[in-house]
Amino acid sequence: MKAQIRNVILAAAVALGAVASPAAANPAGNVVVFGDSFAANPDQYLNTVLRLTHGSSTSSARVLDAYPSQSGCLQGPDNWPSQLRARTGAAVEDWSCAGITSAEQLGRIDEAIRTGALNRGTRAVTLDAGFNDHWRPLLDAPGTRYDAARVREQYLSNMRAAAAKVRAVAPGATIVVPGMLSITGGDARLCAINVVPNLPLGMPAPTINGWERHHRDNQREAAGQIGASFLDVNAKSTGHSTCAKDGERWVAGLIDTTTANYNMVFHPSRGGSDFVADQVSLAV
Questions:
Q1: How big, in percent rounded to 5, are the helix, strand and coil portions of the chain?
Q2: Is 94 helix (H, G, I), strand (E, B) or coil?
Q3: For a Cys staple, 96 with which of 40, 82, 171, 282, CB 3.0–4.6 Å?
Q4: Sequence-ordered strand ranges (E) for 131-263
């Protein structure tokens, strides 16, 4: 009888330990996400308010206090980094930031290192920024001509610098370069107006489609140079662009009442974020 009681107590202790020890259930090491708005995917209205009130510490603080954020950047509570936590069971540090370029991503990496979020125990890092490299120079300096070769060289240089920063503090971390969800699809069309159920209104968008193709090629090349895993999300989502049927659309349009659960125009829906999270979870 004593032996039976001892066995019962031992079994109960083992079971209790399994429940009460989340560290034993969670994989070792955190995942740190760097990326632009396709990763951050915050509420577009709050993000606009934050940008407009950037010079007002009081107004900015109110926005940052009311919404998930990291170091001055808002992040949607249902974005793909948030979904990644649920899929992997790992601690995910989201350092994505709407609007940043691959050059500005370097500053986010420095900040993550300074705060200890990116550290020797980090198991994986994603480097997702770069699409804004194609259009930001045209906006920042009106009259500038698009130079795909120059964008490529600067992006590759920035990605090599990013990888060096990561490996200096987290030498064992896996680096992943997730592609961007397809905006224009396989037929290079952009559907900015989606208001009639299952009848997206599109038009040819060769410029944006060109940026997408260049970005995908640049990401693939960068991954090869820095020894990272490239996830071709763009190719796998061509049938889910802004011009897809309502239930299959993973990127919203501009005037859009038929895409379910999106936070920003021309940005991922919840379904799109779920898909990216699935892809990344297999690599980290």
A1: 50, 15, 35
A2: strand
A3: 40
A4: 174-178, 189-194, 201-204, 229-231, 255-256
Q: Which uninterrupted H or E stretch holds 206?
A: helix 206-226
Q: How many other CB atoms are there within 10 angstroms of residue 47's CB atom?
A: 23
Task: Yes or no: say if 257 and 196 are a contact pair by the CB < 8 Å rule.
Answer: no
CB 67 within 8 A of CB 26: no
For residues 175-181, give the mean pLDDT: 98
The matching CATH number, chosen from 3.40.50.720, 3.20.20.80, 3.40.50.1110, 3.40.50.970, for 31-38+100-281 is 3.40.50.1110
Q: State pTM to two decimals.
A: 0.86
CA 127 to chain centre: 8
Written as six digits, the tokens of 48 are 């606009």
Q: What is the pLDDT of residues 73-130, one digit of tens each?
A: 999 999 999 999 999 999 999 999 999 999 999 999 999 999 999 999 999 999 999 9
Helix or strand or coil: residue 220? helix
Per domain, the residue ranges of the chain are 31-38+100-281
